[in-house]
Specification:
The protein is mainly alpha-helical and 259 residues long. It has 2 domains: 92 residues, Arc Repressor Mutant, subunit A; 153 residues, no CATH class. The protein is built from 11 helices and 2 strands, in the order ααααββααααααα. It has a two-stranded antiparallel ribbon. Strand 1 and strand 2 form a beta hairpin. Helix 5 packs across helix 6, helix 8 crosses helix 10 and helix 8 runs parallel beside helix 11. The protein is globular and about 60 Å long. The relative contact order is 0.11.
Length: 259
């Protein structure tokens, strides 16, 4: 089986974060190519083989997957890595389709929640950690839209707190330079952010250098998903998308912009 055939059986790769794609590739190298140890160059080559954009920080992302007690990757020797048992289980949870039998769905949920519970530990602030735990608990009762909405709210509140504590001057300066109704707003408390549309808030954070352009893209994408979940529709929200949503919010917002 080629790597393209392997990935095509999974579904929409846009549902997966960059870290998840790295694990999918390493799983393929291990299971179908017999490569037990691989380098960052091997992973990069696989991205290129299937014409997927190679993450600019691929080496950093790969090293990050070796951290923690139950890390999905293990460092075997200098510049080489291998997929751990936890990593194998995580990838196999991705391969479980929502359209399979109830037992398979329950297996996916169990594996996903076990994985997400590890992510909770990255959240340092106690009230946000409890809030995220409640959001993840919604998955157990198949309330996937509630999980996404709650996770988005946590991310937004975290960025509000980050701006207030560290970047308020930069934010207000960029806000005052806009050529629309928002230039009359001066933020001094968290409640003042309610006068700024969420998409505009993200735009101002990027324009003022508070967040990077890559994070802005991630937030724009997650806001679109949140909007879909916040209104009645026939759009199906897959389990893998929920896992990806939480993973990317924690890694790219909560963990990156510490207060």
């Amino acid at each position: 089986m080629t790597i393209l055939e392997f990935l095509n059986q999974i579904g929409n790769l846009k549902d997966f974060s960059r870290k998840s794609l790295i694990l999918l590739i390493t799983y393929y190298l291990r299971k179908y190519k017999g490569t037990l140890e691989f380098s960052v160059s091997d992973i990069r080559g696989s991205f290129q083989d299937i014409s997927l954009k190679v993450p600019s920080d691929l080496a950093r992302l790969t090293r990050g997957l070796t951290k923690g007690k139950n890390s999905p990757l293990l460092r075997t020797k200098k510049k080489y890595f291998s997929l751990s048992l936890d990593g194998v289980r995580e990838v196999e949870s991705y391969l479980t389709s929502d359209k399979q039998n109830p037992a398979a769905i329950e297996s996916f949920i169990h594996n996903a929640i076990t994985y997400l519970e590890k992510i909770i530990s990255k959240v340092e602030e106690d009230n946000k950690r409890r809030f995220l735990a409640e959001a993840i608990a919604c998955i157990k009762v198949r309330a996937k839209r509630a999980t996404i909405i709650m996770t988005w709210l946590m991310a937004l509140q975290h960025l509000y707190d980050y701006v207030l504590s560290k970047k308020l001057k930069d934010f207000n300066l960029t806000l005052s330079q806009r050529r629309d109704r928002y230039n009359k707003i001066q933020v001094t408390t968290r409640d003042d952010f309610s006068d700024v549309k969420e998409s505009v808030f993200i735009e101002i954070c990027r324009s003022s250098g508070i967040i990077s352009n890559d994070v802005r893209k991630i937030l724009d994408e997650k806001l679109g998903i949140r909007n879909t979940c916040a209104h009645p529709s026939n759009v199906e929200i897959h389990d893998s998308k929920v896992v990806n949503f939480i993973e990317e919010i924690v890694d790219n917002v909560i963990d990156k912009y510490k207060i």
